[in-house]
Write a structure and sequence with these properties.
Elements: E1 4-8, H1 13-23, E2 29-33, H2 42-45, H3 53-62, E3 64-65, E4 68-69, H4 70-77, E5 86-90, H5 94-107, E6 113-116, H6 126-140
Parallel strand pairs: 1-2, 5-6
Antiparallel strand pairs: 1-5, 3-4
Helix pairs in contact: 1-5, 3-4
């Protein structure tokens, strides 16, 4: 898989452009994800594999999350944004992840919600991944999650 950075909810144009300029020397694909695609598997958005519409329908209808089906969760969140920015790094080795983090620090851009695409989270949609990252972030910073 090609090294890819997925960006979610980077609505400030100047901030997004500054982030793009910081990542440009690393020669990675940077892909902005639109809210209407948040219900798709993060692995598919990163280009890990092609997801057919049929696969997405099956996943959304059959796999329950916290008592709700993906279909119910997606219908409640479709087209809505997150309460914060999220960046997902896919296909990067440890050294390349360090380079990304260094480039962000050097440019003065702080992205609180960052993740690496793994075998465990590649089938999650953006909402599921964001919820997990947010929970971990709050735990690490000593805040209780609601």
């Amino acid at each position: 898989m090609r090294e890819t950075i997925l960006l979610f909810h980077f609505t400030d144009k100047d901030r997004r452009n500054k982030l793009m300029r910081a990542l440009l020397p690393l020669r990675m694909r940077v892909k902005e994800i639109l809210p209407e695609d948040y219900g798709k598997q993060v692995g598919c958005l990163a280009g890990l594999k092609e997801c057919t519409t049929e696969e997405e329908k099956i996943l959304m209808e059959e796999l329950p999350i916290d008592g709700q089906s993906h279909k119910d969760m997606y219908s409640q969140t479709s087209g809505q944004e997150f309460p914060g920015e999220m960046m997902v790094m896919a296909g990067l080795g440890g050294g390349r992840i360090d380079q990304v983090l260094r480039a962000l620090r050097k440019s003065g851009i702080f992205v609180p919600y960052k993740a690496v695409l793994t075998a465990a989270n590649q089938t999650w949609n953006a909402w599921e991944l964001f919820a997990e990252i947010k929970k971990e972030h709050e735990t690490m910073n000593g805040k209780d999650t609601p």
